[in-house]
Known about the structure:
It is a single chain. This protein is mostly helical and about 160 residues long. It has helices at about 5-40, 45-60, 60-65, 75-80, 85-120, 130-155. Helix 1 (about 5-40) packs antiparallel against helix 6 (about 130-155) and helix 5 (about 85-120) runs antiparallel to helix 6. The radius of gyration is 19 Å and the shape is elongated. The two termini are about 15 Å apart. The model has no long low-confidence stretch (mean pLDDT about 90).
Amino acid sequence: MNLLGxxxxxxxxxxxxxxxxxxxxxxxxxxxxxxxxxxxFVVPSALxxxxxxxxxxxxxxxxxxxxxxxxxxxxxxxxxLPPKARRPLQTFALGLGFLAAFYASVQAWLKVAESFRYGDxxxxxxxxxxxxxxxxxxxxLSLFTLALLEAWLKAVQGVEG
Length: 161
């Protein structure tokens, strides 16, 4: 594996770790809520924080899931095509996915910048700056875009995986 491959592997592992930490955070928030009901205290904005963490978990998990082959793909259709037609169609689909993810990533980062510039806060009891949870979404989308680019390049080169 070359240096770029190792760097990508490290980035996708970091994304996987951050997604797992989001899952752990959700668990802790829910446990705090349950304990609070029995002990008589309220966890401010617990539902909101769990929602933000859920979005972070989903988007940070996109790239590692793509690399592991866990996304729903058109393999049923591709499997029925002759090999000569399969590769161009797969390359086209990955390229289209890359372009869509790239556009979404750019828009997500623009939204993060806008929220930061205007000082947008979450509407709950806890005045959390919105750019913070939005950053996890934008980072996850950006890493997914990178994973799609890697998959597209492999498809263009005819490399399986």
